Amino acid sequence: MPINIPKNLPAGEILANENIFIMDEQRASTQDIRPLNILVLNLMPEKERTETQLLRLLSNSPLQVNVELLHTASYASKNVSQSHLQQFYKSFNQIKNNRYDGMIITGAPVEQLKFEEVYYWKELTEIMEWTKTHVTSVMHICWGAQAALYYHYGIDKFKLSEKRTGVFQHQLVNSDVQLVRGCDDEFLAPHSRFTDVSEEEILAHDDLILVSTSKDSGPFTILSKDKKHVMVTGHLEYDATTLGIEYHRDMDNGLQPEMPIDYFPDNDPNEKPLNRWRSHAYLVFSNWLNYYVYQETPFSWK
């Protein structure tokens, strides 16, 4: 089934070239069908790249998905044109009276700050509070996952001694939950962050389920028992080249970054990396849409 996106969104052409069925809002309005309405709060600096990555994963489902894009009004991103935001994004005030079947809150490059020091933290907490009554299920990614654990469950992050970047092996510790139905017991996933959360605190919390973890990169997938929140501490949405782009960018800026672990073939940054987490990413997103959004959301919001 198609994924419905704003007309002329640049990601649409990229996805169409990948043979992904794209339908713009104008054509979707003629379809006599109840699509899933998904809201994406995009906090990543390079918004167009993140849009494409997330839309690609949301498209792999027999369910028709209507996607709206949200940005913060309290902070203006410096890495995307204002015309792009004005044409394709909405602010919270514009959508706060709507109800959504699902929502994604992305990561953001602010993890070294305390949550309360983040410029748009007050606005984000207002949005996260609003999701309790206006969204069926929310997927939180990387810093977005840490923010959710802190705001909803009181679990704070802590700084790592060095940036955790690379592709790491993970293990399922709870394969019974529907989020990972069909997933392998072991899988790879990329990380790119300076902070982590405590596995012990997650295991001790009565409202949370640890779904997967890694001895090298810590807890990965966390689920609330009411299925309201899915928290993924890494970046399943990343393309094969994303970690490399970050590494070469930091090198060019003279930051002397650590080379991503188990990422470049033969640890040669001139070699093209492979995407070794794609199947797990598609399956997790499809399971979320099916079991936590489609099968939980009301047919008609009241």
From TrEMBL:
Its main location: cytoplasm. Its EC number is 2.3.1.31. Pathway: Amino-acid biosynthesis; L-methionine biosynthesis via de novo pathway; O-acetyl-L-homoserine from L-homoserine: step 1/1. It catalyses: L-homoserine + acetyl-CoA = O-acetyl-L-homoserine + CoA. Pfam families: HTS (PF04204). It is an enzyme of class 2 (transferase). Keywords: Acyltransferase, Amino-acid biosynthesis, Cytoplasm, Methionine biosynthesis, Transferase. GO terms for molecular function: homoserine O-succinyltransferase activity. Gene3D superfamilies: 3.40.50.880. The record marks 111 as: Important for acyl-CoA specificity. The keyword Acyltransferase applies. Transfers an acetyl group from acetyl-CoA to L-homoserine, forming acetyl-L-homoserine. Belongs to the MetA family. NCBIfam families: metA (TIGR01001). This is Homoserine O-acetyltransferase. It comes from Halobacillus seohaensis. The lineage of its organism: Bacteria, Bacillati, Bacillota, Bacilli, Bacillales.
